[in-house]
Amino acid sequence: MNIRHLTFRLLQVYVAVVRSGSISQAAQQLHLTQPTVSLQIKRLSEAVGEPLLEQCDGRYKPTFVGNELYHAALDALTRFEDFDGFLTDAARGNKGHFSIGVVTTAQYVLPRLLSPYAQQYPAVDVTFNIGNRGSVLQRFENQLDDLYLFSHPPTGDHVVSRRFLRNPLVLIAPIHHWAAQRDDVDFAELVDERFLMREPGSATRMVFENFLREQNFQLHNTMQIESNEVIRMSVENGLGLAVLSEHTLAQSQARVAQIKLHNFPLHSHWYLVQHGDRRLPVTAHNFIEFMSAHLREWVEEKYIGPDMVGLTSGE
Fold first, then answer.
1. Which of 130, 134, 167, 175 is the most buried (most CB within 10 A)?
2. 3-92 — its CATH code?
3. Its pTM surpasses 0.85
4. What is the mean pLDDT of each run of 10 residues along the chain (315 residues)?
5. Cα separation of 259 and 88, whole Å?
6. 282 in Cβ contact with 93 (< 8 Å)
């Protein structure tokens, strides 16, 4: 058999003839003329090198070889029908893959957003890459992911970002700390306390340091810890005070107290970011649209940010 002479069209015509048992009916189904169908069957027989059909009681039936070809044709055509369905699903974003680069503090937020999306789109594979701000910035510059979650996004013409969640930063202390027992504390009373700080470059630290500069405060005792979870546990155990995301505390059920201060909580946001030079896959578009439509079902209204609309269009 000269397989190079086989085409999907020849196989489609042959399957139609076998199923209908008639050249004329197959021609009607395929919107072809009878001579065209007859010619296609002849070409297919020549390519195989064996007779494929025989007449019995006025109907066409496959020969022994033709029956094997019929099943092979069904296998091939069905497989490509499945592939066509896959292409349709992929074009609609129902199947495929996208990746998200996430700063460590956002690991408390993203699962709440991804879980309902994954239930509705089970055939979409999502890669979740977590790191500190420096490492996620590097991933952004190298365009390693499709979307990013930052609480302090990068800058530049190639950055497309939208605020979608408020991220209030609160000052926490051990439950029995003296400041936790007061309803109104001035930050000036706390400058001699030990503060547990994230590493330089952390968005939480940057917001806190901006507050200190604006209010002309200077801390006298700090300790650097590169993990929100370790900071939270350290505060619980009396090692010092810290500024952390309210989301972090809500998810961890932390045994700490929030100190009531002037100018707190500090205002911050989560940003959904994409690199302007990287084409966003349909699956990632769908994720953004899904979030826009359902965010209020997963997150309290007070946290919803104003700028979700427009991210997919790159506005």
1. 167
2. 1.10.10.10
3. no
4. 75 90 91 92 89 89 90 82 66 77 78 81 86 88 88 86 86 92 90 92 89 93 89 92 84 79 87 85 84 78 65 44
5. 54
6. yes
